[in-house]
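User: structure tokens for this one?
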Amino acid sequence: MKICVFLSAADLDDRYTVPAREFAELIGRGGHTLVWGGSESGLMKVVADGVQEAGGKLVGVSVDFLAAKARTNADEMVIAGDLAERKALLLDKSDAIVIMVGGTGTLDEATEILELKKHGKHTKPVVLLNTAGFYDGLRQQFQRMEDEGFLPLPLTDLVFFAKDGVGALAYLEETSGLQ
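Assistant:
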């Protein structure tokens, strides 16, 4: 399975890097491919290292203004012209999506992927990996959107909230039809 992971390129502390590394190793040991932003820094590097060292493949999609930070030993690296093209390529090259901890860029990617799914533009499973409760507030906001009628379909049809990588990968394998 080709798993797109949206996540931060920032250097983060162990409460985020340790679970991210564990999830990456599950991806690699499972023989899956990581599709990610291609960066060789921060949490993106931690996850790419973990996948590659555990036997998985790497497909990176960087963007022209970040190309200098792109990983040089990925199995495939594509350089998009802008962020919109990058997001489209990440979605196109993947079978499933996992949203990990991140800042505004990750939030932008997450909301676009969910909006596309809401409108039937893709049917890929989407997991929000809620490491250390990072997305508790977002989950509460999504629940409010559903409760007050802002979502045309149940929240559970849009996204699965996983508290750890084991749960995230199990959900993807169960719902994607791919192993």
